[in-house]
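Progress note, project year one: complex with nicotinamide-adenine-dinucleotide.
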Amino acid sequence: MHDHKILVTCGLGYIGAHVCVNVCVKLLESNFNVVVIDNFSNSSRDTPDKINTITGRTITLYKGDFCDVAFLRKVFQNETHFSCVVHLAALVLMHESLSDPVKYYECKLTTSCMACPIAAIQFLACLM
Ligand SMILES: NC(=O)c1ccc[n+]([C@@H]2O[C@H](COP(=O)([O-])OP(=O)(O)OC[C@H]3O[C@@H](n4cnc5c(N)ncnc54)[C@H](O)[C@@H]3O)[C@@H](O)[C@H]2O)c1
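Model obtained:
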């Protein structure tokens, strides 16, 4: 039997931090562990501590880029059997998105292409 785990991609941003807090609180009784991948490109250094303080739980944090295959390979050597993947990876700065739309398109596309097979593999692993 594996621990219950939920993966939040880019989970230290505005939406991600709220997801982490609510998931931790709501699933506390079920003993879910929250694993976050974030590169801190648009999040504060103290966000993980704030999440831990609010929830009384400790999230597992992997600092790195969700487009970096070598980094993801290392993460998933350590972490398997996620029951759920919440995919929030994106760039969200309005002005930059207008001046460099390709960068935004590529980020959304690449991270989604990563997240979909990861979620499928984790789902299959949970069935075994
Ligand atoms: N904020 C809103 O009102 C809102 C509304 C609807 C949908 N959304 C969607 O929710 C998602 C998150 O939005 P947000 O407002 O929380 O953004 P945010 O910028 O606050 O959070 C994004 C997080 O992703 C991280 N990140 C970005 N690129 C990364 C990468 N390549 N690898 C690892 N980490 C990376 C950043 O450091 C940040 O912590 C986006 O998909 C956005 O479109 C947001």
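The chain is about 50% helix and 15% strand.
Residues 10, 12-16, 37-43, 65-67, 88-92, 107, 111 surround nicotinamide-adenine-dinucleotide (CB under 6 Å).
No further modelling is planned for this target in the current period.
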